[in-house]
Specification:
By secondary structure, the chain is α+β, with helices and mostly antiparallel strands. The chain is built from four helices and five strands. The protein has a single domain, classed as 3-Layer(aba) Sandwich (Cytidine Deaminase, domain 2), CATH 3.40.140.10. Helix 2 runs parallel beside helix 3. The structure holds tetrahydrodeoxyuridine.
């Protein structure tokens, strides 16, 4: 099979994040976020934010996707997409940047507004958290 080009990968991953966002459980903030990780093998794992009445227990879409993927044995992530209804798209919080730096250090990061999935801003995990804390 022909390897899909980067533009196709980006668009596909952003669409997967938008699909995952539909399952967000955000009754308090009403701010629904979707994320999707892409492995080198071409697998896509989606996740969405889940909130708690004890607000601090809330977990972001990026971490839900990452925890899902890791506990399904997936590794070697090459990209992550994050989508929400936010002008120019939502930027990952500091906690998610730390987890991504640990488990997806080489990944590209694609950010889009759910109302405009075609405008995709591009970053890297390394660029979003330079000099990340690590024990190794
Ligand atoms: N949220 C995410 O899911 N990802 C981010 O990068 C930032 C914030 C969620 C957490 C909470 O459910 C809601 O957005 C409002 O902060």
């Amino acid at each position: 099979m022909k390897k899909p080009n980067k533009a196709v990968l980006k668009a596909t991953l952003v669409k997967a994040a938008a699909r995952a966002r539909k399952e967000a459980v955000a009754p308090y903030s009403k701010f629904q976020v979707g994320a999707a990780l892409l492995t080198r093998a071409g697998e896509i794992i989606g996740g969405a934010n889940v909130e708690s009445a004890s607000y601090g227990l809330t977990c972001c879409a990026e971490r839900i996707a990452l925890f899902k993927a890791l506990t399904e044995g997936k590794r070697d992530f090459i990209a992550v997409a994050v989508v929400a209804r936010w002008d120019q798209g939502p930027m990952p919080c500091g906690a998610c940047r730390q987890l991504l730096a640990e488990y997806a250090p080489k990944a590209d990061v694609y950010i889009a507004d759910s109302d405009d999935l075609k405008t995709i801003r591009e970053f890297t995990v390394q660029g979003l958290l330079p000099e990340a804390f690590t024990l190794s």
